Amino acid sequence: MKTVTEFPRKVVEFPDMGIVMPDGCRLSARIWMPEDASDKPVPAILEHLPYRKRDGTIFRDQLTHPYFAGHGYASIRVDMRGNGDSEGLMDDEYSEQELQDACDVIAWAAAQPWCNGNVGMMGISWGGFNCLQVAAKRPPALKAAISLCSTVDRYADDIHYKGGCLLLENFGWASTMLSYSSRPPDPLIAGDNRWRDLWLTRLENQPFLAPLWLSHQHRDAYWKRGSICEDFSAVQAAVLSIGGWHDGYRNTISNLVTNIRSPVKGIVGPWIHKYPHYAGPNPAIGFLQEALRWWDRWLKGAETGVEADPDYRAYVMDSVRPARWHPERPGRWIAEQEWPSPNIKLEAIELIPDGAKPAIVASPQNCGLAGGEYFPFTFGPELPGDQRPDDALSVCFDQAELEEAIDIVGAPEVEVRLSSDRPQANIAVRLCDVHPDGASELISYGVLNLTHRNSHEFPEALVPGETVSARVVLDQCAYRVPAGHRLRVAVSNAYWPMIWPSPEPATLDLSKATLKLPLRPLATGDEVSFAEPEGATPWATETIRPTNSERHVDRDDEKTGVVTLSITDDFGEVRDLAHGLVHGSIVRETWAIHPDDPLSAMGSTHWTQTFSRNEWSVRTETFADMRSDAQNFILSARIEAYEGEKLVFERDFEQAIPRALL
Fold it and tell me: What does pTM read for this prediction?
């Protein structure tokens, strides 16, 4: 990445500007703007997050916000209420209070003498979600948004219930937020006499969100609120949507470009859950320059040509050897002026033709361990590995060796007719690229809770032995399968630890299966290009402990038969060279299951967060566990908070949530 130190306008920074909400709650904002903004007002750009501007997102903030400011914007990074250095309490993700706070910050910014009255909102993941939801509320000053790694559907295309199946990320992310939001404000910002009171109040009121999310197992009003797919027309701001093929949120770009009527464009690269100017796998792109084209057009009225950009720009990844991490994905950029594209045709491939012998699907419960993380973000061993171990536990439909390469661009689908011997069952479908030596690389996958085959809002139990039809939509992808390789469709009724298992082992009889493959004429080279990545001066730190990520699978064949996936992500410990704060973070996860017993499923997490400066030090430890029986999900969690080595706060959570049709 090229570091830019000279900008058209000189930048000044305000590390803690208070923005007081109508109810008196003070939000802490870090703001960069041109030094002469009061004389020459500029548009504002808001990023509104719970992830702590002081230490949590500072790496990316340093690259991004000063860069925008140097090009004539007031770039505003706000800690949401109840997080970081802001006052107040948080009770859920994307609450009405959170969204109203963002609207109030937008109105505040538009009214400042240094602002020209136009505001944009941007963000990745949480910030990508809430900028779309805020746009749907139409605050008058909001003219444009850039949403990365986000969703339009909080229920079926988020970390909660993909295809109506309970994602383990539902529990995992609740555990993460329990740790994240339990961290203290910085005494240098909150004050030596206030930080502790704010922290203890935050700890006493800290929610563990997994029970709440599990209390809404169907697509009810809880999930519809904030899902902009309920009314795409509500979004009238210009939206640039960006995502990555190695991220969990790869469908949003197509959904937005297809359905929003306001100006909208989409870009999908080979990336994990990161901003694309520093993301991996390479190639990264000049995201900040691309963002400036968007902001300059919709916030300044400049003619930057973004309206003429192709609707959908995507990176078609070449076939590679399976690996848990790829520093680079070779391939090429394609451009579709319209999306959905008339250039893409669906090819139907009969996997089980009419009258053929049914395929029996009865997967061991540990099928899925090669699937990787839902949204990788550590630049470590989190990508899908060689699929052969999971293929061996699935029913596989291998196609003939390809005589010519094909480009798959879009969302593959598999239509099935099947029966189940249980009233509830899941189905997982993986599309794989099989190399000549048998190595199997994941192209895309989809999962479906078969009781949700007709509706996520009104599930219908399966009648054992009765044949039903279902459609499994796989995630969007852009992938070249070379000549000499074969396509494999692998079908299982377990996908651990991506989804929570059914309460009973089930057997599916597949009597018919058809793959619908979106094929695009073979791209001969890059059809569009991007500038090389740029960024402002990086965050200045001293490394106290380096980062490290590990994962391994243990099979206790001699005693219990349990298969255990253990993951440790040590995010390291660093000292901020500007203000001296030392922060470290480690998470340990365990996911265990017996291949024959879905009720043996167990997940546990343990987070450690440390902060220190001179003689001051604090530490939080959070623990969470999840298991289930045939009737209930059983959840427990614990927070411990320490000043030095003294325990100053502890709190336990425990709750059983009745299982619905999951």
Answer: 0.97
